[in-house]
Write a structure and sequence with these properties.
Blueprint: H1 7-21, H2 23-32, E1 34-38, H3 58-61, E2 70-74, E3 111-115, E4 129-133, H4 143-147, E5 157-161, H5 173-177, E6 183-187
Antiparallel strand pairs: 1-6, 2-5, 3-4
The chain binds iron/sulfur cluster (3 copies).
One iron/sulfur cluster binds near residues 177 and 178.
Length: about 200
């Protein structure tokens, strides 16, 4: 294996150095007003009609922040609270003795669920669940986003730049790599802050 630093390592180092060297500019941005944001209408993983099996994981691999500043977010108002959620379960996995998929989809086990009300084991089709993302585990790989789309899902899970994690690089490295120009810059008052990312006890 080469000892040469990877492009990402170099960029990460440059970004960290830039935190000090260009502090004035970053401070200006932090107050000022411009944020990077994922446009779900452009992102391959959330865009309707994109049906590739593998999700695009460039938001994970290209971000200069460890684990990435991008996370999956479930917009509860759009979620169907399905019993067999195609983002929670790997619906291509073998069916278990209860008739449910035997494997979860998320490689980091970052999607959790809780029954809404009392779950009835005799009538699973009428059980509904609240799904939420464990933000400390999620790395924004996009697999769940790709699966939570019509016709199986309702598109309630999307990728968001977490502003409390993002160092607001002058030229976001994800933006450079993104095949769909889905990383866009927006003014602060138009930025989508993620109230849906909740810490559930
Ligand atoms: S790099 Fe672009 S297409 Fe890929 S997951 Fe990120 S926003 Fe979506
Ligand atoms: S984006 Fe990836 S790591 Fe995050 S919840 Fe979805 S599948 Fe899991
Ligand atoms: S601007 Fe934010 S999301 Fe983009 S590479 Fe830098 S830290 Fe990551």
């Amino acid at each position: 294996m080469s000892d040469q630093p990877t492009r990402r390592t170099v960029l990460r180092g440059a970004a960290v150095l830039g935190l000090g060297g260009a502090a004035g500019l970053l401070v200006k941005k932090a107050h000022g007003q411009i944020f990077w944001q994922v446009d779900p209408a452009r992102c391959l993983n959330s865009r309707l009609g994109e049906t590739t099996v593998e999700a695009c994981n460039l938001c994970t691999s290209e971000c200069v922040v460890g684990l990435s500043a991008v996370r999956a977010v479930n917009e509860y108002s759009r979620c169907g609270r399905c019993n067999i959620c195609p983002a929670y379960f790997d619906i291509s996995s073998a069916v278990d003795e209860k008739g449910m998929p035997s494997q979860k989809l998320c490689p980091r086990d970052a999607i959790q669920r809780k029954p809404i009300g009392k779950a009835d084991p005799e009538d699973p089709a009428n059980n509904f669940y609240e799904y939420f993302i464990d933000e400390d585990k999620c790395d924004g790989c996009g697999k769940c986003v790709m699966k939570c789309k019509e016709p199986l899902g309702l598109g309630s899970i999307v990728l968001r730049v977490r502003y409390d994690r993002c160092v607001n690089c002058n030229r976001c490295t994800i933006s450079t790599a993104c095949p769909k120009n889905a990383l866009i810059q927006v003014p602060q008052d138009e930025a989508l802050h993620p109230p849906e990312i909740l810490r559930h006890g």
